[in-house]
Amino acid sequence: MRDSEELIPVGKIIGSHGIKGQMKLHSYSGNFSSLTEARSVVIRKPDGTLSDFTIRGATANNGRFIISLVDFDDIDAVAPLVGSELCIRRGNLPEPAEDEYYWCDLIGLRVFTDEGAQLGCITDIFETGSSDIYVVQGEAREYLIPAIGEVVKTVDLNGGMIVVTPLDGLLDL
């Protein structure tokens, strides 16, 4: 069981938006529902300082999010937050659906083929539109593994591993 107070980074504040205290957020996952369902967020400044805030609103805008927080009403109030990370306490996140996972839970998992060969560990994940791609760093090289049902056979968060069935030629790229 995970700690409900654990901070999950969901994005980075990259600038202000307009003059009324709104902020542009680069999302780490593109999961808009996590932001809209959360009532409060934690801002982690680059120096590590943590501050709790209430969300006033969030909207999607050209592949990024625009967020506004209670008590932030002008552009000058937002400026000190640029470069900070936006986090949500795990207990405030919606439960993922079956066979869905938060990216932060997948980063660091060891990846094995269904034949037992260890490929490496997931170091990053990115979206392509049709599926997520797991960036797996092995000892000698990096693999890009599509997060699709044909490939990802088992995700074992407690065991810290994922088992994949590579498509023909996938490991040769």
Name the features.
single chain; 173 residues; mainly beta; Elongation Factor Tu (Ef-tu), domain 3; SH3 type barrels; 2 domains; 6-stranded antiparallel beta barrel; 6-stranded mixed β-sheet; 46% strand; elongated
Notes on the structure:
The chain is mainly beta. It has three helices and twelve strands. It has a six-stranded antiparallel barrel with strand order 1-2-5-4-3-6. A six-stranded mixed β-sheet has the order 10-9-8-7-12-11, with no helix packed on it.
**Terminal CA distance:** 37 Å
Query: Which CATH architecture of the largest domain would you pick?
Result: Beta Barrel
Shape: elongated
Please count the beta strands (DSSP E, at least 2 residues each): 12
What is the H-and-E element order? EEHEEEHEHEEEEEE
Nearest-integer average pLDDT: 88
CATH class of the largest domain: Mainly Beta
Question: Mind sketching the topology for me?
Answer:
Layout: E1 7-17, E2 22-27, H1 32-37, E3 40-44, E4 50-61, E5 64-69, H2 75-78, E6 85-89, H3 103-106, E7 110-113, E8 118-127, E9 132-137, E10 142-146, E11 152-156, E12 161-164
Give a summary of the structure in a few sentences.
The protein is built from three helices and twelve strands.
